[in-house]
Amino acid sequence: MHEAPSRHFDIAIIGGGFAGVYCAQQILKRLGGEKLRVGIIASENHMVFQPMLPEVVGGSLSPQHVVNPIRMICEAADVLKGEVTALDLESRVLTLDGGRFTPNVTVTFDHLMLAPGAGVDLSRIPGMSEHAYLMRTVGDAMKLRAAIISRMEEANLITKHQQRKEMLSFVVVGGGYSGVETAGQIQDLIAGVLRYYDNIRPDEPSVTVVHSGERVLGMLGPRLGDYTRECLEKMGVKLIFQKRVRAVTARTVQLNDGTTIPTSLVVCTVGNAPNPILVTLGEKGQLPLERGKVVVEATGQVKGLDKVWAAGDCASFPKADGGLCPETAQFAMRQGALIGHNIISALQNKPLKPFKFTGLGELATIGHRKAVAMVLGLRFSGLLAWFMWRSVYLMKLPGLDRKLRVMAEWTFELFFPRDINLLTPSFSSPLGEMHLEKGDSLFRSGEPAQSLYAVKKGCVEITDASGQLVKAARAGEHFGERALLGDGIWRFDATATEPSELVAIDGDTFKTLANSIGSLGSLFRSTAQQYHLPEEILQTVNAIPEATRLSTAADVMTRNIASLTCTQTVQDAVAEFQAHPHSTYPVTDAGKVIGLLRRSIAYDWLKNHGLTCRDQLQDLPLTTPFCVRSDMPVPELVQTLMRSGVSKAVVVDAENYLLGMVTVFDLLKGAAA
User: DSSP label at 214?
Assistant: First the structure.
């Protein structure tokens, strides 16, 4: 077993967004000469400047310019990249999954800042999670941009007008900031590149926004909301108000009024959900939640808890002038900075400050060099608001290098056409192929299990802690299901004994298949029984009376068994089924076992070859028998049965002549005696 690495932080911050990073920066700034360990735990090693993600979709910005490495903007902090899989506030310990090749990391802490952001749940709308593109990460934006250009390339090859229209129908769900900005950027991208596609007519591409409210950007008031609608409509964006998406298919979006919109690409900007880790803590009573969000005081401290703080999208943070803070960057960054200040104050036994920020205003770009803004109660729109939007967000970008890069790229975009290169980013696939040379280790006991493996070529041996062979997986066989169905930890070692080709199926995909398809789930639960630890086998052996343990397979087997010969016909087999009903029957040739006949195989053969056929059993697809030698000691027999995952074995002599059969029940009868 490999020991999991451990860390201890005086201040642990979960989340690498605005709240988490600004909290860390404030703490590091106020630490001075104090020696305190500050840790940032984030699922990515960079902070995403999310307000600029739509610009990545539209090609106005490169993806690398809207992210900042957390290690570079918080140099004195210890950054751990991984997913928090367990959190215990009472014991002040969390568990971190760092990836496929890393054992789980245990982290203890004194102060804890919770800023993991919100989760996403699209399951309430059938088909949304399977077919919709999201806009939460840089990878999402890159993937969406690649998909749009890919649709343009495909439509350019289609000769029929209606098919091109359906191929180029893009639907954005949600009329908030992200939905409006994304729709505007998609429309701008299409307008900017359309002249390079000779076969696509200007009236064929379409962008549609489906919004459940009365107007887009309702938080900015009626005037700016109506202005935004007018601008989007002039650009060519279609707006559907007071309608909800009922279902999404591969080629349509279905609304709750029965309307169907043909489309090949759907972008979902709604569906925020409580963070699952925080929900689990709330259910345990360790964390106060209100509508899935952590309830905090005006100081940022979680209500009723000592040394636990929360901010950002996951927190129900009170606003200074009443109500709750909106889930925007300007509030998250100031909440984080306040908590950083208050954590140091708490360590120094100084009074804590309440959150007093009430907001400077709101801005949203709507494409085509237009934006809307409400700043300090004043409303702006058009080109002036667009310059304000770019200026404000340019100043908010952390780091001088990022500011200069973005400013240069925006400047070039004013004079040069948009890039239409189709650079499809590589995203994690549920399936992956790998090659192993002889002696290569695939995994070791104690490591986290990430995949189910299927062998295409070669052989991988699964061995237990004592080095004893558990299974030799060859072409057509699989392994890994026990760990994935259990605690997610490998209990065995896997090593290639020859050059091998494997297919790895992602663990989440495996679980989805196993839970969705009953027969697959039953199969995997059955084959998982092959992987028994030595102590489990020893426990079973010790439960058998000593007299039975000292005997052999020949002593406990059933000698008078129903068997068939290879020259008998299918009708002879059916007669034997009726006389001696069993599930399987040994088939012999001159007394030697050559296979097993299953009743189901014989019946299928008759259905496919005619009920009156006189085919001999040697012509049927016999199952390879599981044979054991008659002199095999019972402890070894128990281990063999448990490790093979079978409940019965054919007992043969040294020359493979049939002697009898032994089952688990034979051993149980011995135990009962």
Answer: S
Tell me the H-state helices in 174-266: 177-193, 222-235
Q: What CA–CA distances, in Å, run from 280 to 115, 120, 271, 285?
A: 16, 15, 19, 9
Question: Can you list the positions of beta strands (E) in 242-388?
Answer: 245-248, 252-255, 260-262, 265-268, 272-273, 289-290, 293-295, 308-310, 315-316, 361-367, 370-375, 378-382
Q: What's the rounded Cα separation, in Å, for the pair 13 and 11? A: 7
**587-632 pLDDT tens trace:** 999 999 999 998 888 888 888 888 778 889 998 988 888 898 999 9
How many C-beta atoms lie closer than 10 Å to residue 660's C-beta? Answer: 20
What DSSP state is assigned to residue 296? B
Q: Describe the chain by its helix, strand, coil percentages, rounded to 5.
A: 35, 30, 35
State the residue for tokens 């954590």: 343
Q: What is the mean pLDDT of residues 301-305?
A: 95
- The position carrying tokens 């006991």 is 445
Closest CA to 333 of 403, 398, 405, 402: 398
CA distances for 366 relative to 54, 152, 176, 242, angstroms: 10, 22, 11, 20
**Pairwise CA distance, residues 96 & 378, whole Å:** 46
pTM of the model: 0.67
User: DSSP string spanning 114-182?
Assistant: E----EE--TTSTTHHHHEEP-SSHHHHHHHHHHHHHHHHHHTT---HHHHHHHTEEEEE--SHHHHHH
Q: What is the pLDDT of residue 673?
A: 44
Per-residue pLDDT tens digits for 264-286 = 899 999 888 888 899 999 999 99
Contact 287, 309 (CB under 8 A): no
Question: Contact, 179 vs 209, CB < 8 A?
Answer: yes
Say if residues 257 and 277 touch (Cβ distance below 8 Å): no
Whole-Å CA distances, 67 to 397, 412, 413, 513, 531: 9, 20, 19, 35, 45
Report the alpha-carbon distance of residue 76 to residue 229 in Å, rounded: 46
Q: Distance between CA atoms of 299 and 310, rounded to whole angstroms?
A: 10
Domains (ranges, CATH) in the chain?
Answer: 6-43+82-118+274-359 (3.50.50.60), 128-271+363-415 (3.50.50.100), 431-531 (2.60.120.10), 536-672 (3.10.580.10)
